[in-house]
């Protein structure tokens, strides 16, 4: 039984995240998608809002569960007995940060490994920050996020309806 953890800010979740989640859910028996704090970022959505959004858009994938956690990623992985952390790599620009994170996490807990899935080219350009930026000006984000996520993101910026 292989349980993996896919952590992130998901502020908001994008089709790029969803593609990684779908693929990881086919590789592992169980996948926990976890909203964690990234202290380098000021979130648009509260943790509860993000968890609700994740539950809504991921409800069709039976071996995926959604959680939030206020501590270290490796502590959550240990608590949940998840031996693998999954992260998506979009481009070489992600690499430095992701390698550092993976190596730090491995020093903190050597039982936990990180595996990287290469984001498909279709979503390689996409990030939650781009989604927030476009939505803040009322631009079209329908190619980036599911309709309900778009609606909630526009609402945060007082855009569209
Ligand atoms: O979607 P993001 O913002 O790239 O995800 C980064 C995240 C949330 C996975 C990372 O910031 C994280 O693991 N936060 C929890 C605290 C922690 O364990 N930090 C890493 C120690 S180096």
Structure commentary:
A five-stranded parallel beta sheet has the order 3-2-1-4-5, sandwiched between helices. The chain has a single domain, classed as HUPs (Rossmann fold, 3-Layer(aba) Sandwich), CATH 3.40.50. 42% of the residues lie in helices and 19% in strands. It is globular. The longest helix is centred in the middle third of the chain and has 17 residues, at 92-108. The protein has helices at residues 15-27, 47-57, 73-79, 92-108, 128-136, 147-157; strands at residues 3-8, 30-36, 64-69, 84-89, 113-118. It contains six helices and five strands; from the N terminus they run βαβαβαβαβαα. The model has no long low-confidence stretch (mean pLDDT 97). The protein has 161 residues and is α/β, with parallel strands linked by helices. The termini are far apart. The structure holds 4'-phosphopantetheine. 4'-phosphopantetheine binds at residues 7-9, 36-38, 41, 72-73, 101, 104.
């Amino acid at each position: 039984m292989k349980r993996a953890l896919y952590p992130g800010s998901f502020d908001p979740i994008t089709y790029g995240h969803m593609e990684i989640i779908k693929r990881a859910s086919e590789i592992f028996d169980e996948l926990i998608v976890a909203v964690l704090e990234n202290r380098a970022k000021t979130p648009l959505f509260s943790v509860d809002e993000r968890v609700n959004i994740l539950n809504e858009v991921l409800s069709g994938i039976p071996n995926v569960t959604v959680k939030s956690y206020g501590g270290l990623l490796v502590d959550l992985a240990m608590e949940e007995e998840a031996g693998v952390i999954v992260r998506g790599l979009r481009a070489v620009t992600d690499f430095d940060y992701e390698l550092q994170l993976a190596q730090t996490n491995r020093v903190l807990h050597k039982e936990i490994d990180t595996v990287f899935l290469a984001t498909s080219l279709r979503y390689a350009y996409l990030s939650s920050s781009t989604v927030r930026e476009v939505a803040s000006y009322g631009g079209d984000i329908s190619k980036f996020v599911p309709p309900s996520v778009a609606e909630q993101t526009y609402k945060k910026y007082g855009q569209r309806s």
